[in-house]
Design goal:
The chain is an alpha+beta fold and 276 residues long. It has three domains: 7-53, Uridine Diphospho-n-acetylenolpyruvylglucosamine Reductase, domain 2, CATH 3.30.43.10; 60-171, Uridine Diphospho-n-acetylenolpyruvylglucosamine Reductase, domain 3, CATH 3.30.465; 179-275, CO dehydrogenase flavoprotein, C-terminal domain (Enolase-like, domain 1, 2-Layer Sandwich), CATH 3.30.390. It has ten helices and 14 strands. The strands form four sheets. A five-stranded antiparallel beta sheet has the order 4-5-10-6-7. A four-stranded antiparallel beta sheet has the order 11-12-13-14, sandwiched between helices. Helix 9 (228-234) packs across helix 10 (245-275).
Length: 276
């Protein structure tokens, strides 16, 4: 199939992009990397009246360290983040990126584009939720910050307004004794995850975020031990042609318990190194 007809705009400023979206009155769609959007257009699952290409907005192509976080702009490619020295300061992001599609897709796809697309099986929304990241949304009334954990409303549904652009994401820097874990199961590398988990351990607090197990990333933070019952309850997706709910629960529980153990071990080694 081919995409339905649409108008195309390539603004050079953020204000121009917002104006284009506002004039479309809900019929506009932002495109940057296009690795998620273009297939949706080709299958006519989305029929926007206008595509607003934000690649010409220079200010959105930055990745920088500021105020205890790494901030990634909306047009920064996933592959560029993989290669950037700042990614080492957000270890969980570095662990997850190689699992996002294939290298060729990451060379074009953007971090913020994945966050805005909100696929339930996507890795990067789960990372953002696990780390309690913040996204910046810019519209006619100016920028506003939204916690990633509050941004997702369902499958492909977010708090992004019709005239807003997701301009950046702020991911907190790791502390010295933090521990992390990340894993997923897919039929083949690059396929959508049947179940996946991101883990952050700090002191005796464990944050677990699951993806591919619900219509959005599911996050739980526990002080002490994480029980199997809690992990099972996080999986609320219905079965489909790829896996049943029970199978996904078994996958997720095994992955989560394994990665929690690895994250605790990594945090423990750092604490012992600091004591020496």
């Amino acid at each position: 199939m081919k995409a339905a007809p649409f108008a195309y705009a390539r603004p050079s400023t953020l204000d121009e992009a917002v104006a284009e979206l506002a004039s479309a009155d809900g019929g506009g769609k932002v495109i940057s990397g296009g690795q998620s959007l273009v297939p949706v257009l080709a299958m006519r699952l989305a029929r926007p009246e206008v595509l607003v290409d934000i690649n010409g907005i220079a200010e959105l192509g930055r990745i920088e360290r500021s105020d205890g976080a790494v901030e990634i702009g909306a047009t920064v490619r996933q592959r560029a983040v993989e290669r950037d020295r700042l990614s080492a300061e957000v270890p969980l992001l570095g662990m997850a990126l190689p699992w996002v599609g294939h290298r060729e897709l990451r060379s074009r796809g953007t971090v913020c584009g994945s966050l805005a697309h909100a696929d339930p099986a996507a890795e990067l929304p789960a990372v953002a939720c696990c780390l309690d990241a913040t996204v910046t949304l810019s519209g006619r009334t100016g920028p506003r910050q939204v916690a990633a954990r509050e941004f997702y409303a369902g499958a492909m549904m977010t708090g992004l307004g019709p005239d807003e652009v997701l301009t950046s994401v702020r991911l907190p820097l790791a502390r010295r004794a933090d521990g992390y874990g990340f894993a997923e199961i897919a039929r083949r590398h690059g396929d959508f995850a049947l179940a996946g988990v991101a883990v952050h351990v700090r002191d005796n607090r464990v944050t677990v975020t699951g993806f591919g197990i619900s219509d959005r990333p599911v996050t739980r933070t526990v002080t002490g031990e994480v029980t199997g019952d809690l992990l099972d309850a996080m999986v609320d997706t219905d079965g489909d042609g790829h896996a049943s709910r029970d199978y996904r629960r078994r996958l997720f529980r095994v992955l989560a318990e394994r990665e929690i153990g690895k994250a605790r071990a990594r945090a423990g080694r750092k604490e012992r190194d600091d004591d020496q």
